[in-house]
Amino acid sequence: MTDNALPVNHDLESAHDLRERALIALRDGQFDLAEQLLSSGNISFAELVENLRIYQAELQIQNEELRRSQAEREEAFTRLHAFFTTMPVAEVVVDRQGLIMETNPRAEELFGLSSSHLHQHFFVRLVEEKDRGKVIHSWSRLDRNEAVVLHELRFRNGDNHPFIGDLHIARLAGDVEDRHRYVCAVLDRTEDMRVRYELQSAHQQLLESEQRYRIVAQFSPDWEYWLGTDGHFVYISPACETITGYSAEELMADPALLGRLIIPEDRAIYLPHFDQARDGNTEHDTECLHFRIRTRNGDIRWIEHYCQPVTGTDGRALGRRGVNRDITERKRTEQALQESEQLYRALFETAADGLAVLQDGRFLSINQAALTMLGYAKAEAVIGRTPDELSPPLQPDGEASATKAARLLTQALHHDSQAFDWDHLRADRQLLPLTVTLVRIKQQGTPALLAIWRHRVKQPQLVEEEFSHSA
Question: pTM for this structure?
Answer without folding.
Answer: 0.45
